[in-house]
Amino acid sequence: MSLLGWLKRSKLKREIIVNVEKLQTRVAVMENGRLEEFMVEHPEEERLVGSVFKGRIQNLENDLQAAFVDIGLKKNAFLHYWDMTSDADSWLDDDEERRSGRKGNRLSDEEIAKRFPPGSEIIVQVTKGPISTKGPRVTANLSIPGRYLVMMPGEHLRGVSKKITDGPERKRLKKILDKLPLPDNVGVVVRTVGAGASARAFARDLRNLLSVWNEMQANIKNLRTPCCIFQEPGLCERVVRDWLTEDVDSIVIDDAKSYTEMRDLTAKISRRAKSKIHRFDGNTGIFDHYGLERQLSDAFARQVPLKSGGYLVIDETEALIAVDVNTGHYKGNGSQEDAIREVNLEAVQEVARQLRLRNIGGLVVLDLIDMKSRKHQREVVRKLKDELKRDRARTNVLDISELGLLEMSRQRQDSSILSQLTSKCPYCKGHGHIKSPMAVSVEIQRALSMLLKRAEKEKKPFEPKIVIAPQVMQRLRTEDSQILAQLQKEFNTRLTFVSELHRHPEAFSILDAATSQIMYSQV
């Protein structure tokens, strides 16, 4: 690392702020006062992702190359055929994979049907929670994370995370693994955070994991199918397990009970880690105190401003995430091409942050400002990849297309923050738009013409009474008044309009004024 890079890193103040309430727990990661990561959990909801279930195979679908497994939820879980057999190779580096002698061959449909017939029991772990109308996705490759190790029941692997790239450190860690007292049917992999940890720390972590495994085995034996045999711990415990790294200066929490639990957990790691846990007892809310409420409000807006004067427009759909990059008021000091490059570089940096904050995944399409220079295009792609390195979710970035679109994917494990905290607007039903008064006026006139023609043909008297919203009434009184007058004259009738204050702008009803019978209704 260069001296400049070291100085920048040394100035970075990284804090984790935890807000615990009865219905919601929120965790925010701040760097020099700026919100960088955000998670939310509702205690009354079952934690699915990471939890392990004893389920029963309901049916095998060869066309989908998947099985559906009853794990006790409303919807059956989706299990790919290739997730039914060992995937330990994904943890190995190339040298370890060659030494293991694994071939990683998938089973044929016939072998799957023979080994996992419908009605048979199977142990699976949830990798993706239910999203929209889809049930959870599961795998038979279990991985239970500890502080420094990941335990893999049913494997014989002893490996080191690919993300630990230092050669001497990898050798040291492998020597430690070789001395750990592992059961024959349990594999382990050193997590990235394990770099630099002592042999004693690994031994302590392994004891905790084996205790979990023994409890899981007892649950497998004693509990009826389908059932949960391992529950992923709550958000506060996961913060200590997954987020408390050397670069974290402090964790501040506002709940006394959770504060005590966190200190007890971190005490098992080290005294230094325990000293980083602090209790907040201010008069204001902890998120308000640290300026997080305002930052969250800004971060989850559809339009996200950039420091340069440009802005992003982020639209989250069921199929993909669309991000539009705009120059806004940015002018720049150099050429137009340089100005576009600067905005795009800042935009992809903010996009990487927004993906983490919102926990959005799947296919992401960035509509960048067009760049003619191939050099600038490669620079923008490289910048996005660098910013995504800190993301815990797996990502894949493609080059910019001829249309100026940058496509990427981000692993989606759970519902986005937006979908967790919001529901569809009952007013616009999630469209974000409602019909204009002119469009509603046209529909009213169309319905009136139909009813009046029918009454004329049947030679029945009919005086319509139309109940509408105030904004539509305003339109009918002004721009469309002559059209309605002609309609009255054409059918020799009288039109009566009634405005209801709380009626939906798109809703209207046409009644027979004489009998109050509803003849037509648009809800």
Structure keywords:
523 residues, alpha+beta, OB fold (Dihydrolipoamide Acetyltransferase, E2P), Nucleotidyltransferase, domain 5, globular
* CATH H-tier superfamily of the largest domain: Nucleic acid-binding proteins
Number of helices: 16
Helix/strand/pairing class, anyone? alpha+beta
What's the number of extended β-strand segments? 25
* Mean residue pLDDT: 87
CATH class bucket of the largest domain: Mainly Beta
Please give the radius of gyration in angstroms.
30 Å
Uncertain stretches of 5 or more adjacent residues: 1-10, 94-103
Whole-Å distance between the termini? 64 Å
List the helices and strands and how they pair.
Blueprint: H1 3-10, E1 14-20, E2 25-31, E3 34-41, E4 52-61, E5 66-70, E6 77-80, H2 94-100, H3 109-115, E7 121-128, E8 137-139, E9 144-145, E10 149-153, E11 158-160, H4 167-179, E12 186-190, H5 199-222, E13 227-230, H6 235-243, E14 250-253, H7 256-267, H8 271-274, E15 277-279, H9 286-289, H10 292-299, E16 303-305, E17 311-316, E18 320-326, H11 336-358, E19 362-367, H12 374-388, E20 395-400, E21 405-410, H13 417-421, H14 437-457, E22 464-468, H15 470-477, H16 481-491, E23 496-499, E24 508-512, E25 518-522
Parallel strand pairs: 1-14, 11-12, 14-15, 18-19, 22-23
Antiparallel strand pairs: 1-2, 2-3, 4-5, 4-7, 4-13, 5-6, 7-8, 9-10, 10-12, 16-17, 17-18, 19-21, 20-21, 22-24, 24-25
